[in-house]
Amino acid sequence: MINPLRGMKDLTFDDSQRFVHIVTTAIGVAKKYGYGYIETPILEETALFKRSVGDSSDIVSKEMYQFEDKGGNDVCMRPEGTAGVVRAFISAKLDRQPVKQKFYYFGPMFRYERPQKGRLREFHQFGCESFGEASVYEDFTIITMISQIFSELGIGFDLQINSLGCTACMPPYKQNLVGFLRETQEELCEDCNRRIDSNPIRVLDCKNTACQTLLVNSPKLIKNLCGECDTDFNKLTVLLDKAGIKYEIDTNLVRGLDYYNKTAFEFVSNDIGSQSAIAGGGRYDKLVEFLDGKPTPAVGFAIGIERIMELVQMPEVTRDGIYMGAMVEEAVEALFPLATAKRKETKVTLEYNSKGFKSHMKGADKVKARYCVLIGEDELANGTVWVKDLESKEESTILINKF
Ligand code: HAM
Q1: Distance separating alpha carbons of residues 278 and 288, to the nearest angstrom
Q2: CA of 125 relative to ligand 1 center, distance in Å
Q3: Is residue 164's pLDDT more than 90?
Q4: How many whole angstroms from 117 Cα to the centroid of ligand 1?
C-alpha cells in the first residue's frame, strides 16, 4: 500500500468540510475588504525565494523542496505565498499602475520541516496581499480583517505586534545588537552564534531558554525607532485600542522571513499546542523594488489553515435539498427529468435502486434532506409524486409537473 509522504495529509470527510468552511468564510471577508482572487504557480525559480524570504532564513537554508527540473532549471515548491504574488504583481506590470491592488489566495505551501502536531511539510494557507498603500491605516485594516475572519469562524486568539523599523532605523539598531551579541557570544547557542553575522535579528526569537534569559537585556528596536516608524507604531496601537482589539507588544517578534519592515504581527492560539501561530504577517515595503519592480509599499498576512482546523466552530447542519427514490423499478427513470429540473435550484440526491418506504426514509435522513420525494406504483400510474417535508413532517401527493 502506498501512503502519503511524511508530513503530508489527505483532506477528507470532516476535515475537508472544515477546510471549505474556513476558505469560504475567509474569502467572504476578504471580498468585503476589496480583495480579488490571485492564483500563482506552486513551482517557481528558486532565486525568487532566496531573494525575498532570504538566503539565511530557516525556510530557504533548510526547508526548501528544491530540485533541478528536466530542463536544468533550479526550481522550488513555494514555501509561502507572498513571494509568488509579488512576482506576479511585477510580471503583470501592476507596479507601473497608480491604482492600489489587493489580492487574496489560498493553497498548498511546502516546507521540509520536522513534522509534529501543527507542523506539516505540505500545509495550506489563506493569505492576502495589499499593494500601493503606505499608510499604517492599512496595517490596522488588515489586522481588523483577520480578527473578523477569526471571529466569524468562532476562534479566539492573542495578537502580538512589533515594529521592525525601516532602512533608516534598522541598520544602526542591528549594529548595536551585534555589539551586544558579541559580548554574550560564548553563552549563546550554536544557532544564535551562526546568526550573529548572517541574520542577527533572528537571534531575538531563539526558542532556547538560556538565550532568552540573556536577551532580556538586549537593545530593543522598539525603543530605537526613527520618528516616522515610532509615530506609525503608536498610531497602530491607538487604532487597535479604539477598535477594542487586544494586543501585546512583543519586542522579540521578528518573523522567520526577511522581507518585513515596520509592522510585524502574529496571531496565536493557546489551544493547539506548541505550534501556536495561527496567522502571521506584516509590512514589506521594499520587496517589490527588491524583485526589480517599481518601489511599492505593501502589507499582507497568511493564516495556517490546518492549525485552525480543530478550533473552528462548524455551523449547525440544517436539512437541505431533496432526496428522491422509487419504490418500483419502472419508476426510477421517471425521476430523472424531475431531478435534473430541481438541480437547477437545490441539491438533489437521487437513489437509483428501487426499494421499500422505510429504506428510502432512512436514506433521506442520512443525507439530511429537507424533502423526501417518492414514486410508487400508484404515483407512477397517476403521474404524481409523494412528498414529505422532513422538517414540518407534512405529507402530500402532488402532480409530478407541479412539484
Ligand atoms: P508564516 O508565518 O511563515 O508567514 O506562515 C503563516 C502561517 O502559516 C503560520 O502562522 C502558520 O499558521 C502556518 N504555517 C507555517 N508553517 C507551517 C507548517 N509547517 N505546518 C502548518 N502550518 C504552518 C508567511 O508565510 C508569510 N507569507 C505571511 C505574509 C503574507 N506576510 C505578508 N504577507
Answers
A1: 26
A2: 7
A3: yes
A4: 15
